[in-house]
Amino acid sequence: MIDDNQNRSPSSDASTRTKEQDAEIRANLEAREARENTPTQTEKSLTREERQEVAANGRLSALTVYSIILREGEEELHRPKTSLWWSGVAAGIGISTSVLAEGIIRTGVGADAPYLSIIESIGYTLGFVLVIMCRLQLFTENTITVVLPVLTSPNRHKFFLTARLWAIVFAANMFGTFVTAALAVHGGILTDEILSSIFEISRHVAEVPPMEALLRGIPAGFFIAALVWMLPSAKGSEVIVIMLFTWLIAAGEFTHVIAGSNEFFNLVMIGEMGIVSAFTHHIFPILIGNILGGTGLFAVLAYGQVSQEIQGDGQP
Fold first, then answer.
1. CA 273 to the chain's CA centroid
2. Per-residue pLDDT reduced to its tens digit, 257-290
3. Average pLDDT of span 149-171
4. Is 1 a residue whose pLDDT tops 50?
5. DSSP per-residue codes, the chain
6. Alpha-carbon span 243 to 236, nearest angstrom
7. Residue 62 has pLDDT above 70, yes or no
């Protein structure tokens, strides 16, 4: 007598597993909804309005934050190429504000001022505030935003869309920072004092060896990804959160590929660095570090903490 299991096709097994996962997800969802709708011991003493206040002031769950960023990532993946390009160019120009603001602060307080790096790092935060609050396409944000859809349901099409977005946004960011460097150096729009301060800052960053630049890029990529993760929970405090963590990148002398590219292009414009050397010895190593920190560390960890709830393997 033939065992019925031998007659089952692989597609039938897959369908059964899918139904089992769906059932488990529904069971988990029902259990979570039951917990949310069941008042705690202290909530039983509260009025309905007070219980609503408790619910309204609760923190977003990890799964909720993941879902918000996942939806943003899905939308970004399907944006037209032209939209991605011009948004990326604007982000490259906007992020250059960080270097400009640092130069202005250094000029104002003096290069010999005590705690100079701590103070001028405040200026570094301004470009990130501009870019993130204007919803422009910054490459390092996309090391987590568009990666979550791939981690959630990986397939060839999503890998292609992610690679397309990364390529367009990175190239656009580079174009924006290059144009800004050209205008700053040759456009006659900055005073000699501010321009001199910008060159000093740029030279200091360029002194970092390639491998060290890569390693310093890992924490920077992690902090930017963490920043993206925190923003949905930071309603009303977004600017403060952005400034705190981008200040940490500057004050800790970690390396950020887009802001750093403007510094390297400043040196290219005055002939102190070749364009090829700028990419091979500085930009590409930092790029790898930022990807490792943003995607390799934070995005994978963020997915790991909700993966069982998404796939239906968690306990209700």
1. 29
2. 999 999 999 999 999 999 999 999 999 999 999 9
3. 95
4. no
5. ---GGGG--HHHHHHHHHHHHHHHHHHHHHHHHHHHHS--TTGGGS-HHHHHHHHHTSPPPHHHHHHHHHHHHHHHHTS-HHHHHHHHHHHHHHHTHHHHHHHHHHHHH-TT-TTHHHHHHHHHHHHHHHHHHTT---GGGGGTTTHHHHHHS--HHHHHHHHHHHHHHHHHHHHHHHHHHHHHHHSS-S-HHHHHHHHHHHHHHHTS-HHHHHHHHHHHHHHHHHHHHHGGG-TT-HHHHHHHHHHHHHHTT---HHHHHHHHHHHHHTTSS-HHHIIIIIIHHHHHHHHIIIIIIIIHHHHHTTHHHHHT-S--
6. 14
7. yes
Encoding tokens for residue 289? 């570090």
Residue bearing tokens 């299991």 = 5
Q: How far apart are the C-alpha atoms of 131 and 246, rounded to whole Å?
A: 12
N-term to C-term CA, the chain: 40
Token reading at 273: 């660095």
Q: What's the one-letter identity of residue 225?
A: A
210 contacts: CB under 8 Å, gap ≥ 6:
280, 281, 282, 285
Q: Half-sphere exposure (CA, 13 Å, Cβ side) for 53? A: 6
Q: Please give the structure tokens belonging to residue 299.
A: 């995005």
Query: For 120-138, what is each residue's pLDDT tens digit?
Result: 999 999 999 999 999 999 9
Rounded distance, CA 175 to CA 179, Å? 6
For residue 74, which of 145, 141, 163, 151 has the smallest C-alpha distance?
Answer: 145
Distance CA 91, CA 81 (A): 15
> How many whole angstroms separate alpha carbon 277 and alpha carbon 264?
9
Show Cβ contacts of residue 41 under 8 Å, excluding neighbours closer than 6 positions: none
